[in-house]
Amino acid sequence: MSITIAGKSVSAIGLGCATFGREIDEAASYAMMDYAQAHGVTLFDTAAAYGAGVSERIVGNWLADHRAASVVLATKLLPPYEPATLPAILEQSLCRLGVDTLDLLYLHQWHPSAEGLELLTMLDRFVRSGKIRALGASNFNAAQLSAALRRQTEAGLAQFQVVQHNHNFAVSDLTPELVDVCATNGIAIVTYSPLGAGFLTGKHRGGVQAGSRFAIIPGHQDIYFQKRAWRRLECLEAVARRSGHNAVTLALAWVLHNPQVTSVLIGGRTPAHLDQAFAAQTLNDPKLLAEMQAE
Predict the structure, then answer these.
(1) Phi/psi class of residue 52: alpha, beta or left (left: φ > 0; alpha: ψ in -120 to 50)?
(2) Local structure of 190: helix, strand or coil
(3) What's the CATH code of the domain at 147?
(4) Distance, CA of 100 to CA of 132 (rounded, Å)
(5) How many angstroms separate the CA atoms of 53 and 20, rounded?
(6) Which of 123, 124, 210, 266 can bridge 158 by disulfide, Cβ–Cβ 3.0-4.6 Å?
(7) Burial letters 198-234, b for 16+ CB under 10 A, else e
(8) 78-99: string of b/e by CB count within 10 Å (b at 16+)?
(9) How many C-beta atoms lie closer than 10 Å to residue 143's C-beta?
(10) How far is 135 from 105, CA to CA, in rounded Å?
(11) Which domain holds residue 196?
């Protein structure tokens, strides 16, 4: 489903800003944002956790120097979600971003406090006061999301309108149950890591590549260095050999042409990573994508 926030359309490709200040410097981050904006990308996604706020600050500096009225700006706050401290934590993010109003605020991951009425009431207050235009939940499973939505509905509070999850050909947290909850409640789905943080390029077959995301964040290894993920990589490469398309394009196309997904976040270090996604958008071959789905 498509979605607009405050009259601004969320693009099918979003810019993931996790690399900003961590894997690339401010100048390279500016180049990514310049290129994304020039090519119609409206969703810019960052988080307080990315570089301990450095990514937010870089995005804020860029916004201060550019006309970016069409940008849908999203950030995320980490748990625990304490009502006593959350307003100050939100203000810190807004200050780094240089904005008074944020288009989309996510809870970065589930925590028991995310179902608490006090916390949900405070999120509602953020929306009603104009601090936040829309609420999102990232890395919640179907049961967790359902419980939070039920509390919001019962109390007449602003509801989560967007979810964000890891989703790619090798590993996906986008379960049928979660998709059903989103469809029932009119919630848009944003996904990240369409190449599995580089896993689906095949570059880690001989071991973790120095300087890669898997080296910088070793936790990715536990997620992807599993039998099923390796088997899925082999299937992807087999389809690539049969079809003549490269594996990266196929993996991106598989996510981008999922009708259940509103927007796919593309991160990276250079505009070439965005070009890969733009190229994959043009590969809309139902027969080929069905073949991949059957693998």
Answers:
(1) left
(2) strand
(3) 3.20.20.100
(4) 9
(5) 10
(6) 124
(7) bbbbeebeeebeeebbbeeeeebeebbeeeebeebbe
(8) eeebebeebeeebeebbebbeb
(9) 12
(10) 5
(11) 4-294
Q: Measure CA 101 to chain center.
A: 20
How many CB atoms are closer than 10 A to CB 144?
19
118 token code pair: 């006090």
Beta carbons of 287 and 250 less than 8 angstroms apart = no
Both tokens of 291, joined, read 């073949």
Q: Which token pair is 153?
A: 């509905």
* Number of residues that make up the chain: 295
Are the C-beta atoms of residues 132 and 106 closer than 8 Å to each other? no
Q: Which residue has the tokens 């950030």?
A: 75
Instruction: Return the ∠ at Cα 226 (arms to 225 and 232), rounded to 5°.
Output: 100
Beta-carbon contacts of 264 under 8 Å, excluding residues fewer than 6 positions away, are 12, 13, 14, 190, 191, 192, 194, 252, 255, 256, 277
Tokens of 33: 């944002």
The single-letter DSSP state of residue 209 is P
User: Would residue 139 be called left, alpha or beta, if left means φ above 0 and alpha means ψ between -120 and 50 degrees?
Assistant: left
Within 13 Å, how many C-alpha atoms sit on residue 245's CB side? 21
Q: Where are the alpha helices (DSSP H) in 218-285?
A: 219-224, 227-243, 247-256, 271-281
> Tokens 């689906």 sit at which residue?
200
Question: Dihedral sign, CA of 278, 284, 288, 292?
Answer: positive
